[in-house]
Amino acid sequence: MTGVVVSMERRPLPPAPKANPIFGTAWRFRRDPLRCLQEFVDEVGHAYRYRFFLNFWGYVFVHPEHNQQILLDNYKNYTKSPHPTFDLLLPLLGRGLLSNDGESWLRQRRLVQPAFHRQQIRSFASTMTAAAERRFNRWERAAREGKPVSFDREMMELTFEIAGRTLFSVDLKEETQEIGDILSQLNQLFINMAMEPFSLYTLKMPFLPRTRRIFRDIGTLDQLIYAMIAQRREAEGPGSDLMGMLLAARDEETGLGMDEKQIRDEVLTLLIAGHETTALLMTWLFYCLACNPDVEAQLHDEVDRTLNGRVPTFEDIPNLVYTRQVVDETMRVYPPAYALSRACNDADVVGGYAVQPNSVITLSPYITHRLPEFWDDPDRFDPERFAPAKNAARHRFAYIPFGAGPRQCIGNGFALIEGVLLAAAIAQRFRLRIPEGYTAELAPQITLHPKGGMPLQFVSRES
């Protein structure tokens, strides 16, 4: 045992980039987190240590081998809690799948998993495309008027409706705008707080305007979720969707069901995660198509040949090969989950470097997806990267838009099927064009948003 300790102590710590003696790298991170992450990789390499304010140290690892060890090989050592970011989100998400850990998380995962089995998702396909079709007339009017629309907002509303109908069998159309505004505000507030020292303490100060706003908005979301739960409890049966599975669940030892707070945490977590990432995927996908007309033309050719004017179905997905490659390449360039965080519980060695216990670990799909050792000309948008032969030759942890290992996003299959179907359905009817003078900029919040929204102009392909 002593020999192991000595060996660990001889391991070097990762290099650290230059930092302010008092504030560390905090201000650089706050100004532009993704550029900061990339600059540090360029400066010191694939693994580094950074100081965030006085003496708070974190680690960043971006090499695929590092991803594999942290997310798979030694994943039990890298947990969600205790972790400042997840602790900050506890008032919103509670102990849902995203933030829970250990045996409690495993029980939740096993409970929720059937809702995301492929056969279950297959039954959702027509709901997904029907939701898009309901917006076609509005988008046709926008095309005739020739005015840009807030495309990211359109996608948020569309995927929110789909999440409500598929996972919980509810129509949230009337609440979409209000909830969308609340989630957008909370997203920005939480990412701002994550960049500040002592931000967790401010949540314990109800007299602060920001704290009052956070809990007021969370209270509004709670009213909606608890009303959904109560309405379903009053129904004749729990139903076969995700809400029904949560209500019908029983503890194997006690036979007791989940209490209202547990169900609330799961519903809110999956409602948020089930729509925002796919909305951002669609937003960036059609921006990339507008920037790459040769890719757009190839996608239109496949969609037209495969569908011949009809609505895409689940059975069409195996034939929409290039469409899936466009989805994959979009998530390479603009991964909605651009950074993954963990807490290191016990000392470890990653990439030859010592990792100290009780430290914060950050992985970045955004940076990993741009490493030139694994991606030729990484800034070029090229769906052909995801041809089968190239996929097979690439390190499997070089592409991690949904994370990886046992804690890989439970909804990855749902998101991919939804992404392919929506991309095909929209591309069959419309082109999206970038307004003159607009250039997309990144706004990394909890997920990767376009700064100030994404104005795009619908153009009807029939015209």
Written account of the structure:
With 463 residues, this protein is of the alpha+beta class. The protein has one domain: Cytochrome p450 (Orthogonal Bundle), CATH 1.10.630.10. The protein is built from 19 helices and 12 strands. Strands 1-2-8-5-3 form a 5-stranded mixed beta sheet, sandwiched between helices. The protein has a 3-stranded antiparallel beta sheet with strand order 4-12-9. The protein has a two-stranded antiparallel ribbon with strand order 6-7. A hairpin with a 5-residue loop joins strand 1 and strand 2. Helix 12 crosses helix 14. The N terminus is likely disordered.
Figure out the total of helices.
Answer: 19
Largest sheet: 5 strands, mixed
Strand order, biggest sheet? 1-2-8-5-3
**Architecture (CATH level 2) name:** Orthogonal Bundle
**Strand-pairing-aware structural class:** alpha+beta
Give the overall shape, derived from the CA principal axes.
Answer: globular
CATH superfamily: Cytochrome P450
User: What ranges have pLDDT less than 50 throughout 5 or more consecutive residues?
Assistant: 1-6
Q: What is the radius of gyration computed over CA atoms, rounded to a whole number of angstroms? A: 23 Å
What is the CATH topology classification name?
Cytochrome p450
